[in-house]
């Protein structure tokens, strides 16, 4: 197997990216347990021995995809700015999460599959960096509530609700398209408008 810490040529970097893209397709479709190296190699258009030159096994590929995913997934929450307008910041967070549902559906399903299995590979990250980031943003939400900028609600469950409603449009996109009877980008625009109305009706400090 290629030493992952050694300097890589452009061709080697491109081959690793090809394998990761193929693996993302396979893992998103079949989950970790249902996926095989043969499926990933076939999707990448390379031989299994060639794949094993770059990654030591299915676990290594999956681990790298999850590491990338977690970093990307946390970016919208990191951007919640305590110095910004409370409603504008929450609105922007909802919109960014919907954009991720639109642009990264495979990554969302990869994450959902890992969680449904009990998070065996990212449990430490969930209980560590993710929890620390959520605690940090909960402090911001509580400050806005104390200042009367938004209604006093449970800030953790507010974040959970945003996660659940926005990620639905990635994990259950087939169902959404089937029920709506259309497959256009307008469904995300409509979802954004509805979720804004839904959340801010509940967050209105009155």
UniProtKB/TrEMBL annotation:
Annotated GO MF terms: DNA-binding transcription factor activity; transcription cis-regulatory region binding
Highest taxon, organism lineage: Bacteria
Ranges for domain HTH tetR-type: 13-73
Protein keywords: DNA-binding
DNA-binding region, residue intervals: 36-55
InterPro entries, alphabetized: Homeodomain-like_sf, HTH-type_TetR-like_transc_reg, HTH_TetR, Tet_transcr_reg_TetR-rel_C_sf, Tscrpt_reg_YcdC_C
Gene Ontology biological process terms from the UniProt entry: negative regulation of DNA-templated transcription
PANTHER family: HTH-TYPE TRANSCRIPTIONAL REGULATOR RUTR (PTHR30055)
UniProt protein name: TetR/AcrR family transcriptional regulator
Organism from which the protein derives: Rubricella aquisinus
Source lineage: Bacteria, Pseudomonadati, Pseudomonadota, Alphaproteobacteria, Rhodobacterales
